[in-house]
UniProtKB/TrEMBL annotation:
Domain FAD-dependent oxidoreductase 2 FAD-binding as annotated: residue spans: 13-537
Regions annotated as coiled coil: none
Alphabetical keyword list: Flavoprotein, Oxidoreductase
Keyword S-adenosyl-L-methionine: no
Protein name per its UniProtKB record: Oxidoreductase
InterPro entries, A to Z: FAD-dep_OxRdtase_2_FAD-bd, FAD/NAD-bd_sf, KsdD_DH, Succ_DH/fumarate_Rdtase_cat_sf
SUPFAM superfamilies in the cross-refs: FAD/NAD(P)-binding domain
Organism domain of life: Bacteria
Amino acid sequence: MESNGARTWTQADVVVVGAGLSGLVAAAEAYNAGRTVIILDQEPEASLGGQAHWSFGGLFLVDSPEQRRLGVKDSAELALSDWMGSASFDRPEDALPRQWAEAYVNFAAGEKRTWLHSLGVRFFPLVQWAERGGYDAQGHGNSVPRFHVVWGTGPGILAPFLAKVQEGVAAGKVQFGFRHRATELVFDGARVAGVGGQLLKASAVGRGEASSRAVAGDFSVGAGAVVVTTGGIGGNHPMVRDQWPGGNGPGYMLTGVPASVDGEFQQAVAGAGGALINTDRMWHYPEGIHNTDPVWPNHGIRILSGPSPLWLDATGRRLPVPLFPGFDSIGTLRHLETTGHDHSWFILNKTIIEKEFALSGSEQNPDLTGKDMKLLAKRALPGAPGPIQNFIDRGVDFLQAATAPELAAKMNALVGSELIDPAGLQETLEARDRQVVSGLGKDMQLNAVREARRFATDKLMRVVPPHPMLAPEHGPLFAVRLSTLTRKSLGGLATDLQSRVLDGGGSPIPGLYAAGEAAGFGGGGMHGYRSLEGTFLGGCLFSGRTAGRHAAGATVL
């Protein structure tokens, strides 16, 4: 495509707006069907792959060989029950999201793994247990471990689709239009016939870095079908606050996605008649920490913790059951909103931090991302993994001390307020330790830790045996300040099961499709109010594949 500042017009069978995972999958499927494809993205080529590149590469699979080898008994029925208990669909507009949820669970229990395996995707054999819930059998959470980490993390899941699209480029059937910022749909009568927007000036920034919005010209691209895969809103804090359920959200938030994740084209589609639903349903994390090496503005990283750290609010009170690390992200976020403070704390010791702390993201897991077995083996050695040690040494949110009163003093100094009572923190830890020493006890978090260690992965690499937190041989003590980290939209453009975007009356808009986060990963919100984790990349795969196939079928060569 031309990029010289002049007005241009280009034509393709399918135009995909957004070069993240769902867009690449849609483009690959359309190319496989023999269609010509143009992929537009406002960012430079360095950011090809979007958020998926930065992800940990977790995928929700049901009754997989990896689960069965670990003795996990899963089924489509159990997974669907967990999904519906977490989603809690309760709105008239949830009819299609519910259908998408059922279709996705069947996909995850059926052809998903076989399809990915045929494309060369492989999985780390130790399945992880995310979002454990902790309520009743029909409530939120995964009854069994289902979080399968791709060998190669986010880049590993992108690789086969990037390869297929590049094959299309070499064949002259696929084109990229980087620095093409779509701002409007082009209509031919009632049918979407293309996309218009701004041609941005070239940018040499690195992957994920904020790029200039300086305009060099404008463009129009004609299409037999348009697929919207522009992602969510997590990089746009004003929009996040505007859509926050019941208010403006925390006063301070970290950003878990690049600034380009701005939601603006999704709004343009809504302005052109597309139904945008469930926008108040979002998936942000309460365990965010400041990145020691930020790439985008206010760049945060999520801690993936085992269940042993005590989670305290800003004033030093333990969070209520079952708001333990890794059990209920949204429930924890909602509770912390009631405290009147923008931060909370993990309290733990050296023994726990070395085994139970991990960090989300491809760049924070160089062993899995780089498929480096020697580096992976070092996780079994004494001491914290390299990325964790980096945050211990350099992270502004990480504090350590020999005693609880000393730790409380450092916590208060970091936030500039005497919110933590040193004697109260000491008493909280002593009470917890008495429960450990009893051998039985009534502390539900300790019972959850013991239960977790019944699962092989947790016992081997994620959960330490219960022990006195204050025991000197397990010291020093650590406190980690946590902030809200923006991440995903759970609502989006309403789509039917063919990924066609619907108007306000529920009718498909001819020629218009949507996939990935822009479509709430399908239907305008297939997760409902909560996610079971590992379902975001998978949602991009499933909805991107659906959109690409149906968009290709709707065009005429």
